Amino acid sequence: MTEAVSKAGRWIDLANPTRFINFAGIVLPWLVGITLLVLAAGLWMSFQAPDDYQQGSTVKIMFIHVPFAWLSMMCYTVMSISAIGTLVWRHPLADVSAKAAAPIGAAFTALALITGSLWGKPMWGTWWVWDARLTSVFVLFLMYLGIIALTRAMDDPAKSSKATAILTLVGFINIPIIKFSVDWWNTLHQPASVIRMGGPTIHPSLLWPLLVMAVGFTLLFFTLHIMAMRNEIWRRRVVAMRRIAARSAERRGV
Amino acid sequence: MLSLFLRDTRLGLRAGGGVLIGILFFLAVIAVVPFGVGPDLKLLARIGPAMLWIGALLATLLGLDRLFQADRDDGSLDLLIMASDRHILALTVLVKCLAHWSTCVLPLVIASPLLGLFMNMEPAAIGATTLTLLVGTPAITLIGAVGAAVAVALPRGGLLVSVIILPLTIPVLIFGVSAAYGAVQDPAPFVAPFLILVAITLFFAVIGPLAAAAALKSSAD
Amino acid sequence: MRLVAENLAGERGGEILFSGLNFAVAGGEALMITGPNGAGKSTLLRIIAGLLDKAEGRIRLDAAPAGFDGLVSACHYLGHLNAMKPVLSVEENLRFWQSFSGIGNHTIDEALDRVQLGDIGHLPFGYLSTGQKRRASIARLLISHRPVWLLDEPTAGLDKGSEDQFAGVMRAHLSGGGIVVAATHLPLGLDGAQELVMGRGGF
Asked: Taking the model in full, what pTM does it have?
């Protein structure tokens, strides 16, 4: 005998999103404050850090380029986890999280590509080269844009959530390719120096500012993400209220 | 399953539109290349394999929305989804992809030697490119099924499908062209990229239909 | 065999169309779903067919006959669209569906005779009139066997004579122990059918 049971994961059930909005309201001011503090500390440490003997002061682009690159991958990972949340547990906030994260991830990826290009011109003598690392990050950027285009094309969140989730998960295969591309292929981009077996190869005087900036930008990402999720919940409420208003007007015979 | 394959093949051939438009688009892309880069024959021969691959990729992507649209428009897609107890939906999708490839993409592969002559390619290059297209275009169709399934409910989803799927087909393009060049340029290897291309096709043959089946089930409205 | 719905709720476009729906249909019985447009009749049928997710509640098929494992595998669904390819002939279409969905109690010729399309089975489906197309898709219900029939406006486009004929087809299915759930504006001529009225204040 078969049964098909459904959990009440409908959007109209406002309990979870309301709790989230309250949570966001409490947490956000603190989060903004800490983010600004850490970023300020990181920037100060970056300016204090010594110049590289080969690259001079242009090495300091690393302090923003590397965190942007890490965050572009981390954001896609957050979206993939949200996608699993949508497909497996049908969590009502999972697809809000995915939709809110996509533009932020796209922005970080674009910034990573742009800062990398600005660094590459003095270092490699070229604005762009099609090696494995740059190509796969560019492909990641295209994937973000595709996901954003898909969510904008379907305005009914119920329909678009699963489709976007599946697409995000299929595209996740690009993340390990990006990470290991510099090891698997001979690339112009340098190999991994921080997250690798055997520990980081950067000198501590450059490593610490880098890590602080990375933490600062990660906090920035979560601040922006929570803000964007709250906005998305509010936006959906407005849509739902408008629909209800239209329907009740129809019932009254207007 | 065989009846599904035969039906889809018959439809693809009888309707006629899909096959012809694909070939015409492929022809158009290759035809404008000499006008764009100039008639230098050596240059054309050098970029020949890559241009054939790009043309075939774009033509395949354009035809992808045909995969599920007709069935959705006449209500057959509902019945195919409902039959998932008897016929696993992923298998149904795989059979549809194979039928689509046989009718809409295989003609492109068959036309590629002729177009290779337009690009002044030598026989070894033409042969290698055709072989890599034969092995690589199924990968594009199979992963394209995911995009087609996701966008089937959208009114003008065709272009969106191409945009979504393009990033995922870039590895196919990279290894296909790499293998094609490897057959004509001495130091470059042929077997290694070719085998990776085969591996990608097999991999997409698994995740493409599975993801497309999941997307179809969730997009039925 | 019983088709049981408990506390069923359905939504469309983010809005709940109906909730708290309960019904039970036994083998040999029919359920007519009536109501104005937009009340959610098609949505309810698509939820039972497994094509739409329910917002809440449960729907199940108890004591299904042997060979049918799930609710969806035991259902024929006849929606607004006919699920036939215009370029293929009626017979070719039916032959495909019979091969895909399994052989039932009627051959293709018998099914076409039952819906009075016996002599035009060889014509391309696209050349048929609206009523003939609807009858051809009714024939699809006969060539494969499913105990539960989900019908959405099955007589749309049919004239009175064909409607009566279709009532006969349904009666034959019911007397064989099948279940019919039909959404319709018009009376289908089945006696003793339960009625489910949907619409403003109807749920």
From this structure: 0.82
